[in-house]
Fold this protein.
Amino acid sequence: MATVELKNLRKTYLTEEIIKGISLSIEEHEFVVFVGPSGCGKSTLLRMIAGLEDITSGDLLIDGQRVNDVEPGKRGLAMVFQSYALYPHMNVYKNMEFGLKLSGMPEAERRAKIENVARTLQLEPYLNHKPGQLSGGQRQRVAIGRAIVRNPKVFLFDEPLSNLDAALRGQMRVELSALHRKLGATTIYVTHDQVEAMTMADKIVVLQKGVVEQIGSPLELYHHPRNLFVARFIGSPPMNFFSAIFQGGDAAGSSVQLRDGSTLYVPVTSPGLLPGTKVTVGIRPEHVELASSGPNSGVVEVIERLGAITLVHVRMPDGEIIVVQTDGAVLTDVNSPISLTLPPRNCHLFAPDGLAFEACHRHPLAA
Amino acid sequence: MQAVLEHSPPAGATARTTKRTGFLLLSPSVLILLVWSIVPLIMTLWYSLQNYNLVDPTLHGFAGIDNYWYLLTDPDFLHALLNTLVLVAGVLVISIGGATLLAVLYDQEFFGRGIARIMVISPFFIMPTVSALLWKNLMLHPIYGVYSAMMRAVGLTPIDWLARFPLMTVMMIVAWEWLPFAVLILLTAVQSLDGEQREAARMDGAGPIARFRYIILPHLGRAISVVVMIETIYLLTIFAEISVTTAGGPGVASTNLAYLIYSRALLQFDVGGASAGGVVAIVIANIVAIFLVRAVARNLEA
């Protein structure tokens, strides 16, 4: 098992900089997930670690050794591709054997290893099948098996579940987590699916436009997003935002004035802002509470009933829409007036430059 | 539901009528094609059993299997048969071997790739007769050919290729004509290879040669078998190149089956003997076709 360290890694295509200086260290046994919108550079970054893309500048260290110029096959990594990339003319056994054979491992040892992995992944009945005869989930397993048999220092996954249907994706997610717990291998996993990121990661790296927006545990990102981008990206449905005027703060919190004139005292430290500055208030749909009367009143515009929960879209007097996630059995009708309660402890404040105000108290699960 | 069931018999009748109309409309073209291929075949079979020589009208009548007997015992026939096989096999090996390497090469990014691709395809657009004449007179001519000039330039004696190595030279000319076709098919096949598969092989530690051997070649298998089949069908009947360059000679050194039949029929005016040759050629072509189609079909299923 191994550590991976990225030191100011950069990648330039022609004249455009895709990866703009990323530094990151990945511990042994850690499961790190790169997330971000499409085009954020997460796959490119993974491919740079794999050696499939050249590194323009910066250092990539695996186990403390600089591997910028080492061939992909010699970095001690194994990768699972989005399309699985199984060799279609080889059966499952030969697919898993290919890398071992090229490394010159003796036949008996190869067989023992492959059979062992096939047993773990329940692939034994399919060893003589060609990839074309397998279902999507089985192909996925073969691709993972092909990575495991090589006993790599680091596993790389490039959106491995995005070609599976929703049910299978959920199942494979659980299997991958279990497999990681069992093998304890250092893993880097790229996805655009935040459910995968939240459920599997020890550490999430949120990327945007080739820059790291935040690194942290899933709940750290959820409870203490560093800036507006992370706040918007993590969480579904996304966080609600509305503008407010900063009034002043002390050690225990900051107070802001909302559009309707009411004030909100949020337990976050104010980073030396002048009173009167325009700030952004953010609150997650699951934290807003519905009330029959009171301040922050609006009109219900859309109701989405998902069974267990209901999403209520409320049009505020100033025209903004606030989404509220509430109980599945809530009795509210479209066009009826409604009031919202915004619990201050769940509110986030963002300065004009997008950075979040530091919370006075860390959430216990995101210490 | 009831209504539909009640209406179904007329619907069936309509379908039958439609089918019959279809057959009627198809029949003229089917008939013409049938006449076109069956009548010559029957005439060839009939002539092959006749004593029929255009320069000797006195010799006529039923010949039985004499024409076949003379043909099959003629050393020229065996020679022509062997030449045909050598020609087909040689051109296949050169064109497919070369095309596989070129396809992999042209799949890489390099400056001027578009123009290079057009140039490698262009021999395919030249008529066989024209390209054979170009090779014979422009390139290989012992006195004013380009190769002769090149050889003289480095102090070597020019070789009269068509006289010294007639079959090899014809093979080379035909391979030059067919290389573009193979390149075209194999290049598209190489390009259809999933990029992630190559990358997976790189991650597995495969170098360029191992990737070519274990990933690219197997991927090209189908395309190669298709090229083999199509080229074989055309190569069995090479005629123009031989007629224009060597006229089958010296002796029968570059005579293949197609040219042998031509020389029997239109140089020796032996219609009976030529027809027997034609029937033998049909039989051989069909045997080859059966094997090829089977092999290719198996390859395509896999």
In short: The beta strands of chain B are 50-52, 60-62. Chain B touches chain A through 18 residues (CB under 8 Å). Residues 49 and 64 of chain B are 5 Å apart (CA to CA).
